[in-house]
Amino acid sequence: MPGQFKYIDLYQTLRKDIVEGRYRFREKMPSKRLLASTMGISLLTVEHSYALLEEEGYIEGRERSGYFVSYQDGLLFPVEEQQEQNLSLTYFQSGDKEGMAYSAIAKTVRKVLSKYGEEILSPSENQGKFFLRRALKDYLRRARGIFVEEEQILIGSGAEQLYALLVQILGREQSFAVEYPSYEKMQKIYKANGITLEFLGMGKNGIHSSALQKAKSKVLHVTPFHSFPTGITATAGKRREYLDFVRRKKAIIIEDDYDSEFSALGKPEDSLFSMDESNSVYYINSFSKTIGPAFRMAYLLLPKERTKEDLKKIAFYSCSVPVLEQCILTELLQSGEFERHINRVKRRRRSDA
Length: 353
Prior knowledge:
Blueprint: H1 7-19, H2 32-39, H3 43-55, E1 59-62, E2 66-69, H4 102-116, H5 130-144, E3 153-156, H6 159-170, E4 175-180, H7 184-192, E5 196-203, E6 206-207, H8 209-214, E7 219-222, H9 236-249, E8 252-256, H10 272-275, E9 281-286, E10 298-301, H11 307-313, H12 323-335, H13 337-352
Parallel strand pairs: 4-5, 4-7, 7-8, 8-9
Antiparallel strand pairs: 1-2, 3-10, 5-6, 9-10
Helix pairs in contact: 1-3, 2-3, 4-12, 5-12, 6-7
Protein name: HTH gntR-type domain-containing protein
Domain HTH gntR-type: 4-72
Organism: Oribacterium parvum ACB1
């Protein structure tokens, strides 16, 4: 094994072994010292890898006993955890304290006015400026492990507008399954567009398995990371259970990935979009949390095999985001300022924890 073996590589290897059943549910994992000695890597590398696996719900540590596999394949539909009678709500702050500094935005605006000139007065393509979608594509690949083409990206003026566009794409007068509790404004937008909502109760790891099994809807709207308002993050097993719901019911998932950039993990959160192999996940994220609440811009990722057909359904809509703002976001992504800001906030969160 190469001397420069990274903890993220070990994490990915162990995760694959767990998911594919080489380490079974409740089986004890090798001790950190044994694994380090066997693989010829440092104890610190193993500790970091185990920490990632534990935070994502693949393993759990027991005092003086070691680590045990806690991941269960969604196909098994494990016995549901007991219903929490008093599910605590962790309401998020407005985001003002974690928004990007005014000085950074002001510097970027000045640079954009000089760099783009009259380009800011030109009309935008319906999906958003191509150069922004290219910059976003590169960022998603580099920082999030999400691989898309520019044609799969749709720029909108906030997640709320994209919810309404998704109704246009997926069809009105049907039922969407949503987490309970969940973002109230999202519920109102769907109802206003003719959607009936089916509420699925939340447990400590995500939507209760029993609720998923009984769900009748063919569209599932979920927030796997920091669901609002509960703050619950779905475990690795639960995320695969969501994807199994798609396979069993030939359904669609709308993945609302708000706030995921600020994950405390040493790697990007695994998105359902990147895990999906059936072209059945639509992915939404916005910049109101990462840059600031006044920065009304979001993006929708379309499943590759559905992109052409989906875009035909909404081809008459113009992009609702001013070109100047699209240029500003492009510059923030290309200059690295956006990622530096994300890393600063993550370091601050860790130091405050």
